[in-house]
């Protein structure tokens, strides 16, 4: 029995050290990724959509406009919505070579703002005289309404995904659902 205790105690000690080491690595990784996502979210809020995508996702300004098919009015609308956003990093979940940072956001309820803009379109009839396309017109009016009136807000959850490539963790671009949530609750879920 003494031999068994002598054998088991060192094994338990080694296992404890190994597992606590993994926990410390995961904790450090969680803190680093949380800090990075905090920087990304702050950048969206303070610097705007285009600047953040260029800085953190490695796109050029031209790629942002062309690949996402964005007009200057689209970018102004996105920036208006993002300036109103508040967020809290909920947790980091690490699973092998993938990590997800879950973020609670409160953002403009864009669906409700669109509905309100349609209801009050007569208030903006003067604005319609100086714009070119109906879709762009509506976005300009929506931006004006969001700036002039106190919008409603919606709470949602989004996630950022990191994938380990070689020895580095690389932030992946949003899926469409998260992208739309970030822009004011346009997601169906």
From TrEMBL:
Signal sequence region: 1-25
Q: What is this protein called?
A: DUF5105 domain-containing protein
Q: Which UniProt keywords apply?
A: Signal
Q: What species was this sequence derived from?
A: Clostridium collagenovorans DSM 3089
């Amino acid at each position: 029995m003494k031999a068994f205790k002598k054998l088991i105690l060192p094994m338990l000690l080694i296992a404890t050290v190994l597992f606590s080491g993994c926990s410390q690595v995961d904790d450090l990784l969680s803190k680093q990724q949380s800090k990075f996502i905090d920087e990304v979210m702050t950048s969206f809020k303070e610097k705007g959509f285009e600047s953040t995508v260029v800085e953190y996702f490695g796109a050029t300004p031209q790629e942002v406009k062309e690949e996402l098919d964005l007009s200057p009015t689209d970018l102004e609308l996105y920036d208006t919505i993002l300036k109103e956003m508040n967020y809290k990093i909920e947790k980091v979940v690490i699973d092998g070579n993938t990590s997800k940072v879950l973020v609670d956001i409160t953002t403009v309820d864009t669906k409700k703002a669109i509905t309100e803009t349609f209801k009050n379109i007569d208030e903006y009839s003067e604005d319609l005289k100086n714009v070119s396309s109906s879709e762009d017109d509506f976005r300009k009016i929506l931006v004006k309404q969001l700036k002039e009136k106190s919008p409603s807000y919606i709470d949602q959850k989004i996630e950022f995904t990191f994938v380990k490539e070689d020895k580095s963790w690389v932030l992946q671009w949003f899926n469409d659902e998260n992208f739309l949530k970030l822009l004011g609750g346009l997601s169906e879920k």
